Amino acid sequence: MVDEPEIRSFETDQGAQIYQLPLEAFPGFWAYAYLVLVDDNELGRMRVLIDTGSGFGYSNDYLETGLSKAAALSNESIGFNDLTHIFITHGHIDHIGGLAFVRPKSRASLGVHELDKRNLTNYEERISIVARRLERFFVEAGVTPKRCENLLELYQLNKGLFHSINVDFTYEAVGMQVGPFEFFHVPGHCAGHVVIRLEDILFSGDHVINSISPHQAPEHLTLSTGLEHYLSSLDALEARAIGIRLTLPGHNEVVVDLPKRIADIKNVHLERLEKVIDFLSEPHTIVEISMYLFGEVQGYNVLLALEEAGAHVEYLYQRGLLRIENLAELEKEVTPIAIQYHTNPE
């Protein structure tokens, strides 16, 4: 195992201790879990783990090492069995995959939002259903049969690392609050995504990330995702940003100016939407739109680029700004075919 970056520590304005635990979720791709130590009048001493990494490669080792380092820094006994709660920001594999490793070692109460509960409790079913929807999406996007097969294999490559597990509670069922932790539902990147506020610090998962715009996929792949939900969630979070001093994301650097970061992310999507409209003055498929927006990409990034392009096309199509150019051909075919999109005349 290579040396991971040192863990960082933060403190809320009321004295809660936070340790940022770096995890190599996949080769060269880093994520963060967070250990939070805070006292509550009713619950007593809370030792909370927010997210768990991917469970892939050395991710679990990094998590275990991170807890040991946090224990040394805090002069407190902190192993998996000392955790009181595990909060999941959203049900993507790089945030939940470590649960398969942590859950048997811990008595912590595990929570997730209702709309991501099945990602944990019916994991295999979800992967199967989404894979079927992805296959149709790829064909309609204009992906060749061979590349479609490769992309489906990529999608499912690391998914077998996890298996269905039970959860102890869902956030809405407990009034969107556990002790001093407040949960805000922000669908878009994931259906049940939440951000978690503790005093003057926000744990943003993948909803708001520094330097990059969090990935979007079309809602017709998974309900309560898609660009419409994501932009609305950014608006809702912006209204709640008063008093937030630091935002701790699931990846990349800490966000020190949340309203500005939200505005920057919105602008990224507005620019992409404008580029798609300009490009579709002539008919094109989602594959071609993806190439126009992101250029030549490789590996898993091909899938991400296609979904991102598809999310922007879906957003524009829902608003009547696009039409299907080859509708007559589409109506004749029984099986899915590549769809060409064109801007709607004014």
Low-confidence stretches: none
Taking all Cα atoms into account, the compactness measure Rg is 21 Å
Q: In what order do the strands lie side by side in the largest sheet?
A: 1-2-3-4-5-6-7
The percentage of residues in β strands lies in 15-25%
Description:
By secondary structure, the chain is an alpha/beta fold. It has a domain at 8-131 and 156-258: Ribonuclease Z/Hydroxyacylglutathione hydrolase-like (Metallo-beta-lactamase, Chain A, 4-Layer Sandwich), CATH 3.60.15. 38% of the residues lie in helices and 20% in strands. The protein has eleven helices and 14 strands. The chain has helices at 59-74, 93-96, 99-102, 114-121, 123-141, 145-156, 227-239, 258-279, 286-294, 300-318, 327-332; strands at 8-11, 17-26, 29-40, 44-50, 85-87, 109-112, 169-170, 177-178, 181-185, 194-198, 201-205, 246-249, 322-324, 341-343. Strands 1-2-3-4-5-6-7 form a seven-stranded mixed sheet. The protein has a five-stranded mixed sheet with strand order 8-9-10-11-12, with no helix packed on it. A two-stranded antiparallel ribbon has the order 13-14. Helix 5 runs antiparallel to helix 6, helix 7 runs antiparallel to helix 8 (258-279) and helix 9 (286-294) packs across helix 10. The model has no long low-confidence stretch (mean pLDDT 95).
